[in-house]
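Inverse folding, one chain.
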């Protein structure tokens, strides 16, 4: 017998459909309905609420083989499928993370196809693979942030069994795995949760109605979130989660849901005997997010730091529009690299108010912040999804890499960045509902037309070609300047791993020098100096020693080192050179 259970406090009657046969369910006082039914291990099933004959998928469905509108299927992980019993795991702090979208990472766009690229990632030197959302969402392809069945694995990627194979293969190669989880909103296609119970609150965020984590009857919704998060790490052996836009999780209770998740994740890590990490995406610049719970914080392991991205990108590229408005100077870059946040209780012209709070660099290591030169957001949310590689020189891309990978922060790459991929990463979707498809395409064009873009230039998210052109072109990897840039990325990552001075996480030990007019900046980390020339013209930088890695042709001068325009050099002090 199999016990089927569903939390559904709203309907007066719930029936279980197993392979087309209806069974009555019994309700308990807590709003849960249960029934014991003889069912095969892979039986299709769903729930019928009140007098509506529609069979709805299980809110906690493990598998949706026919999409988010169809019946669920029973699924349990096969213990025999795992071979990672010796995997000890590791924390993400100080690591190099590789963010990828399963559907565009390979031509096939599946978990199994991604396995074939893992040896490449090992050779690159990364420590973790971060998968953009793999939960079930409407349609065949999309970014995954409009998920509606959070417990199920997107079937076109290969479903749950293929995800098990991918994570097991990663662990076999020494790679950790992080899964991007979205708990701040639900997608518009296939969201049946409100029919079951009060999953949504009276509030809203930019992506739709907010999740009920603090209103009446929120306890079971919070449990729904917590159990889903823990399941990725227990059932699927993930080494942690990236939590999408946590600033949209409005929690007015005394114990914030992130603090609760942090505590339960630590307890799970203790039981499993391996570290588990939680990385939060937040635009609040609030260090309480990454402050330990016993010090009054929420206990996240780390957070994405968009200030670092904005400071690097705008200083190198010269872009100053929108949220780049306060950045762009070498001084702003130096301030951000030294202090972690640029806006730390200071006025933000983009927000028209003060923003952020200072980071206590004496107690919070830099490795709790992630440094990156681009992410899926910073590419895909541009009007035409253009990468920096489509607008900058290879030298500028190399400088950006040196600034991020040479910094004291935990580093993250976005797939293809390491060779300067020419593929855009555009916003794409495949909503099966014609009205939703049309609204998505029209809304995207309208949004960017309001910011001065020609609407005809904005790719149609629903056009399959938008998805196809966003796939990586792997034949570029060893081609000319692409291959040269890849070699620099490999060398920078190797230096991070092999040199203790470059593994020092404390920002108080970082010295940053710069010249605004000459447009150079130097990060000094122990015996090493990472010197970067952001300008087009050659510049003399006051660093001396042996060049251990460079882009361009640095030359020793009487006053230091001459750097070509758009170049960098990692220089080791002569007194410590073996």
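Residues assigned per position:
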């Amino acid at each position: 017998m199999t016990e089927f259970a569903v939390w559904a406090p709203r309907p007066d009657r719930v029936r279980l459909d197993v392979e087309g046969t209806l069974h009555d369910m019994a309700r308990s006082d807590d709003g849960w309905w249960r029934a014991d039914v003889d069912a095969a291990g892979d039986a299709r099933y769903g729930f019928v609420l009140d007098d509506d004959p529609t069979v709805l998928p299980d809110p906690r469905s493990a598998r949706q083989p026919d999409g988010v509108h169809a019946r669920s299927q029973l699924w349990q992980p096969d213990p025999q499928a795992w071979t990672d019993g010796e995997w000890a795991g590791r924390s993400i702090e100080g690591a190099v993370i590789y963010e990828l979208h399963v559907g565009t990472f390979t031509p096939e766009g599946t978990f199994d196809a991604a396995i074939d690229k893992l040896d490449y990632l090992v050779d690159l030197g990364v420590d973790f693979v971060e998968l953009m959302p793999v939960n079930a969402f409407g349609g065949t392809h999309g970014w995954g942030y409009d998920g509606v069945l959070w417990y199920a694995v997107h079937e076109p990627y290969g479903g749950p069994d293929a995800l098990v194979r991918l994570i097991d293969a990663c662990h076999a190669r020494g790679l950790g795995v992080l899964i991007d989880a979205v708990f701040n909103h639900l997608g518009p296609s296939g969201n049946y949760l409100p029919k079951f119970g009060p999953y949504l609150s009276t509030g809203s965020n930019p992506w739709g109605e907010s999740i009920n984590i603090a209103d009446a009857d929120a306890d079971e919704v919070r449990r729904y979130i917590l159990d889903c998060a823990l399941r990725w790490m227990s059932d699927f052996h993930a080494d942690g989660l990236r939590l999408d836009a946590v600033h949209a999780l409005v929690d007015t209770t005394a114990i914030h849901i992130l603090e609760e998740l942090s505590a339960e994740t630590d307890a799970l890590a203790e039981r499993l005997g391996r570290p588990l990490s939680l990385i939060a995406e937040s635009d609040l610049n609030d260090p309480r997010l990454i402050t330990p719970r016993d010090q009054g914080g929420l206990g996240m392991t780390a957070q994405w730091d968009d200030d670092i991205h904005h400071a690097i990108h705008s200083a190198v590229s010269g872009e100053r529009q929108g949220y780049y408005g306060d950045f762009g100077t070498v001084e702003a870059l130096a301030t951000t690299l030294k202090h972690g946040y640029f806006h730390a209780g200071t006025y933000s012209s983009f927000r028209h108010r003060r923003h952020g709070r200072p980071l206590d660099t004496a107690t919070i290591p830099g490795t709790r912040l992630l440094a990156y030169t681009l992410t899926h957001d910073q590419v895909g949310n541009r009007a035409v999804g253009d990468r920096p590689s489509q607008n900058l020189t290879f030298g500028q891309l190399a400088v950006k890499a040196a600034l991020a990978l040479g910094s004291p922060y935990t580093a993250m790459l976005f797939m293809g960045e390491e060779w300067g991929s020419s593929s855009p990463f555009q916003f794409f979707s495949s909503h099966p509902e014609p009205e939703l498809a049309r609204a998505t395409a029209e809304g995207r064009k309208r949004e960017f037309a309001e910011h001065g873009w020609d609407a005809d230039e904005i790719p149609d998210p629903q056009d399959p070609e938008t998805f196809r052109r966003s796939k990586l072109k792997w034949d570029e990897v060893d081609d000319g300047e692409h291959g040269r840039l890849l070699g620099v990325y490999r060398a920078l990552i190797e230096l991070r791993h092999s040199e203790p001075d470059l593994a020092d996480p404390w920002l108080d030990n970082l010295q940053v020098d710069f010249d605004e007019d000459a447009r150079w900046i130097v990060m000094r980390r122990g015996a090493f100096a990472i010197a970067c020339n952001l300008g087009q013209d050659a510049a003399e930088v006051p660093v001396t020693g042996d060049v251990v890695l460079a882009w361009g042709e640095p030359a020793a001068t009487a006053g230091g080192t001459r750097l070509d325009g758009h170049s960098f050099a990692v220089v080791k002090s002569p007194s410590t050179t073996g």
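The chain has a mean pLDDT of 96. The longest strand covers residues 147-153.
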